[in-house]
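User: Teach me something about this protein's shape.
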Amino acid sequence: MFIDSHCHLDFPEFQSRLPEVLANMEAAKVSNALCVSVDLPDFPNVLKLAQEYPHLYASVGVHPDYEDTPEPSYDFLVDTALKHSKIVAIGETGLDYYRMGDRSYESMDWQRERFRTHIRAAIACKKPLIIHTRSASEDTIKILKEEGADRIGGVMHCFTESLEMAKAAMEMGFYISFSGIVTFKSAKDLQATCKEVPLDRMLIETDSPYLAPIPYRGKINEPAWVAKVGEFIASLKGVAIEDLAEQTSSNFYECFQIDRSYS
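Assistant: First, the predicted structure itself:
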């Protein structure tokens, strides 16, 4: 069985299709999925999904790309994570300088402060972090180290950065998660990195509704298709698909501190 370690089933693309999407998961032997929060106004929908469906989990946090949105406080993140048992992580959080454009480095201070708030909350409530990082590798690792994120670990989601960054993250106890991007023909560097990441430090995900893997590229992605990500990586690394599915599922339970017997 596969597990989708990162998806957004609360997004509008799924509102009219949720029963079909969940049925597709079951048919594809995808046992669980983690529905990830991106902002506070939509967080109740994320939590509702996790509470309604035993095989779904939730996180709480605000994405670094969401600038004009209510800011999460340390107290809110900690209290909410501790109040609800189906919340298994803090995030997604991190840094994204990709759209910084002509703005100054200092103009992104709000992102860095938000990131630190999430890390501190994760350590306080003992929940792992879901990290989004884009065009900000150096600062992401720097802040994680400064805040002592190695005490809680987590996952570098939808990883597209260098092998050096992957190694730095793994040294702090983070897992590296690969999405459908790894299946793209243009992703040779990422595929090379994937080959070097040990199976016992790896997760797989869809980030649906985005980034559908080959052969579905260009379509609305869904958790069932994490199986295609797993199949591609198994072939890339020369391992049995059953072994990859079992190891990445085991990693998911370990990373998010979930009792496998109740999943």
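Now, about its shape. Residues 61 and 91 are 4 Å apart (CA to CA). The mean pLDDT is 96. If you'd like, I can walk through any region in more detail.
User: That's plenty for now, thanks!
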